[in-house]
Write a structure and sequence with these properties.
This protein is mostly helical. The protein is 81% helix and 0% strand. It has one domain (2-202). It has helices at residues 2-22, 28-48, 56-75, 81-90, 97-119, 126-154, 156-163, 171-202. It is globular and about 50 Å long.
């Protein structure tokens, strides 16, 4: 019963933020580009729930990452109001919400990749496990940067809002660095909790 309630709460929160995000966003082409990964995550979560149920930690992180994407889609990553306020407070001209997004792009996939590799027994040694997880996260980050490049080439109108570079020449490299920091942080901070939850799933 508790699991059913948590599942319903997960879907309710996701749909509530999704609907809010879709109401008068900055522009709909950018919104579609930013929110599409969250929608794909929702579909994958629903389709795999019975066959390969993830740990509660993984589902929580997927929801948090989806919310980050949907907020970014609503405002665009360069114009999230809270991060404008933070920039003003710190005396900066740059809205750094996109850096939060790229941190999550490493942090969340790290736990999901770790869980899949452990439960399917792809990797035996824990040192190799951490290395492979970080490599997967960096590969995801690099592929996303390629997607941003392709979108910029195809759609000049939506490119600037989607890219969110804000004139920063090292934006691509710093995005990947944030994903790296996110992946390492997840492994350092959450591995023990994650191991306990995986053990409960096996039991």
């Amino acid at each position: 019963m508790k699991t059913l309630h948590l599942k319903a709460l997960w879907i309710l929160v996701f749909l509530a933020v999704f609907i809010w995000s879709a109401i008068n966003p900055h522009d709909y082409p950018t919104w579609v580009l930013e929110v599409l990964p969250a929608f794909i995550a929702l579909v994958v979560v629903i389709l795999t729930y019975r066959k390969f149920r993830l740990s509660p930690l993984s589902y929580l992180l997927i929801l948090v990452h989806s919310i980050i994407l949907m907020v970014g889609g609503h405002y665009t990553y360069a114009e999230v109001p809270l991060f404008d306020d933070i920039a003003n407070l710190l005396g900066s001209e740059r809205n750094n919400y996109d850096k939060l997004g790229h941190f999550a792009q490493g942090f969340v996939p790290a736990i999901i990749a770790r869980e899949i590799l452990l439960r399917l027994k792809v990797i035996n040694g824990r040192n190799w496990l951490n290395f492979i997880v970080v490599a997967i996260c960096l590969a995801i980050s690099a592929f996303y940067e390629l997607l941003e490049w392709w979108v910029a080439l195809i759609s000049k109108e939506s490119a600037q809002a989607f890219l969110g570079t804000q004139g920063y020449v090292w934006d691509t490299q710093s995005d990947m660095a944030m994903a790296l920091i996110g992946a390492v942080s997840a492994l350092v901070l959450l591995s023990k909790l994650h191991d306990r939850q995986i053990a409960r799933l096996k039991a």
